[in-house]
Specification:
Blueprint lengths: L2 H6 L4 E2 L12 E5 L4 H12 L3 E6 L17 E5 L5 H11 L3 E4 L8 H4 L1 H22 L4 E7 L22 H20 L3 E6 L2 E2 L8 H13 L6 E3 L5 E2 L2 E2 H11 L8 E3 L5 E2 H11 L8 E3 L17 H7 L7 H16 L1
Parallel strand pairs: 1-4, 2-3, 2-5, 3-4, 5-6, 6-7, 7-12, 8-11, 9-14
Antiparallel strand pairs: 10-13
Bound molecules: NADPH dihydro-nicotinamide-adenine-dinucleotide phosphate and guanosine-5'-diphosphate-rhamnose (GDR).
Guanosine-5'-diphosphate-rhamnose binds next to helix 7.
Length: 342
C-alpha cells in the first residue's frame, strides 16, 4: 500500500475516543479484523447495524489495506493474541454481545517453519480470549474460526461435524486445540461458545501466498505480459473452495441460534489445483499447461490430499447456502487482479 493511499484513508476511530451511548445496537468484537474474513465480517455486521470493534496488533506500519474503506465506522483497539491483559481489557471495556476470534497464524506452510509461534497464536490464543470473556463478560457469545485442516488425512469423505480429526500440519494441530478448548469452555462454564469448521474460502482479498490468489495474480500478470510462468506445488490436491463473503454469513448465523453448536461449512464440491489453473487461465483465453511448472519448493512435508464438506447441518439448522460457484469465484478473482495490475 502506498503512502498516498494511506493518506487518503479516514483516521481509525481509536479506543481512547469516548464511546457513544449504547442504544439497542449490538456490539461485536472481531480479532483478525485486518484479515480477509475480518474485512468481510465487519462489512456484514455494519450492514446489520452492529457497533464493530476491531482488534489490531501493534506493528510498525498499519495493515488496514482490506478495511481502509471501513475505518470511519469500525472502532480500532490494540491487543494481541499473545497478551492476556490486552485481551481482557478489550472485553472488559467493550462488553460485547458477540466475539469473533478470526485472528491466527493462518498459512499452513509457515506452521512448519514457526511451529511454536503458530501454537501460541492459533492454539493458546484461543484460550487467552476465552479466559478474557470468562473473567470480564461471560455472557458474550463466542465464535472460534476452526478449519477443515483439522480433518487432514480424512478418515471419511465427505467430512461432517462427527468426522474424527487427523491434522497434518502444526497449523492443523493448533486448530484442533482451538476447537476443543472452545467446546470445553462451553461444557465447563456454560458459555455460548461455538466452533465453525470452515472449508477453504477465498476472494479478491485473499493473501497472495494462498494457492487461489497466487493463481489469479499470476494469470493476470501473464495475460498483461508482466510474467511468463507460474510455479506451484502439488497439482492433485483437492479442496472444497467457496467465497469468503458467503462464509462470514454462516459465522454470524451460528451466534444467533437458541443453542450453541458446532457446524461444518463448505460447498460440497471439490476441485483440484489443476482444475483451478484450468479455469483461471481459460477465463483469459490461455492454456494453463503452457505456463504452469511444478516446483518442489512448494510441496509440503505432509499434505492434506483432498477435503470435501458435508454442510447439511448448516443448511438445515442455519438456513445457510453458498451463493457463489467455483467458476464464479475464480473469474471474480482473476478479474479483480486484472483490474488491479492494469
Ligand atoms: P488472514 O491470514 O487473512 O488473517 C489473519 C488475521 O489474524 C490478520 O488480521 C492478522 O493481523 C491477525 N493476527 C495474526 N496474529 C495475531 C496476533 N498475535 N494478535 C492479533 N491478531 C493477529 O486469515 P483469514 O481471514 O483467511 O482467516 C480467518 C481465520 O479463519 C483464521 O483463524 C484462519 O486460520 C481461519 N480459517 C480460514 C479459512 C480460509 O479458507 N480463509 C478456512 C478455515 C479457517 P495482521 O494484519 O496484523 O497480520
Ligand atoms: P490450505 O490453503 O493449505 O488448504 O489452507 P492453500 O491455498 O495454501 O493450499 C491449498 C492446496 O494447494 C496446494 N498447492 C499450493 N498451495 C500454495 N499455497 N502455494 C502453492 O504454490 C501451491 N501449489 C499447490 C497446497 O499444497 C494445498 O494442498 C487454507 C488456509 O486458509 C487455512 O488457514 C485454512 O484453515 C484452510 O485453508 C481451510
Amino acid at each position: 500500500m502506498s503512502s498516498k493511499d494511506a493518506a487518503k484513508r479516514p483516521k481509525p476511530k481509536q479506543a481512547t475516543e469516548p464511546r457513544q451511548p449504547r442504544q439497542s445496537r449490538k456490539t461485536a468484537v472481531i480479532t483478525g479484523v485486518t484479515g480477509q474474513d475480518g474485512s468481510y465480517l465487519a462489512e456484514l455486521l455494519l450492514g446489520k447495524g452492529y457497533e464493530v470493534i476491531g482488534v489490531v496488533r501493534r506493528t510498525s506500519h498499519d495493515s488496514y489495506e482490506r478495511i481502509g474503506h471501513l475505518l470511519d465506522r469500525v472502532q480500532i483497539v490494540a491487543a494481541d493474541l499473545l497478551d492476556q491483559h490486552s485481551l481482557t481489557t478489550v472485553i472488559r471495556d467493550a462488553k460485547p454481545d458477540e466475539v469473533y476470534n478470526l485472528a491466527a497464524q493462518s498459512f499452513v506452510p509457515t506452521s512448519w517453519n514457526q511451529p511454536v509461534l503458530t501454537g501460541e497464536f492459533t492454539a493458546l490464543g484461543v484460550t487467552r480470549l476465552l479466559e478474557a470473556i470468562r473473567l470480564a463478560h461471560p455472557q458474550a457469545r463466542f465464535y472460534q474460526a476452526s478449519s477443515s485442516e483439522m480433518f487432514g488425512k480424512a478418515v471419511e469423505t465427505p467430512q461432517r461435524e462427527t468426522t474424527p480429526f487427523y491434522p497434518r500440519s502444526p497449523y492443523g494441530v493448533a486448530k484442533v486445540y482451538g476447537h476443543w478448548i472452545t467446546v470445553n469452555y462451553r461444557e465447563s462454564y456454560g458459555m455460548y461458545a461455538v466452533s465453525g469448521i470452515l472449508f477453504n474460502h477465498e476472494s479478491p482479498r485473499r493473501g497472495l501466498e494462498f494457492v487461489t490468489r497466487k493463481v489469479s495474480d499470476a494469470v493476470a500478470r501473464i495475460k498483461l505480459g508482466k510474467a511468463t510462468e507460474l510455479r506451484l506445488g502439488k497439482l492433485d490436491s483437492g479442496r472444497d473452495w467457496g467465497f469468503a463473503g458467503d462464509y462470514v454469513d454462516a459465522m454470524w448465523r451460528m451466534l444467533q441460534q437458541p443453542e450453541p453448536k458446532d457446524y461444518v461449512v463448505g460447498t460440497g464440491k471439490m476441485h483440484t489445483v489443476r482444475d483451478l489453473c484450468a479455469a483461471a487461465f481459460r477465463h483469459v483465453g490461455l492454456d494453463w499447461q503452457k505456463y504452469v511448472a511444478v516446483d518442489p519448493r512448494f510441496v509440503r512435508p505432509a499434505e492434506v490430499d483432498t477435503l470435501l464438506a458435508d454442510a447439511s447441518r448448516a443448511r438445515k439448522e442455519l438456513g445457510w447456502t453458498p451463493r457463489v460457484s467455483f467458476e464464479q469465484l475464480v473469474e471474480m478473482m482473476v478479474d479483480a487482479d486484472l483490474e488491479r495490475l492494469a
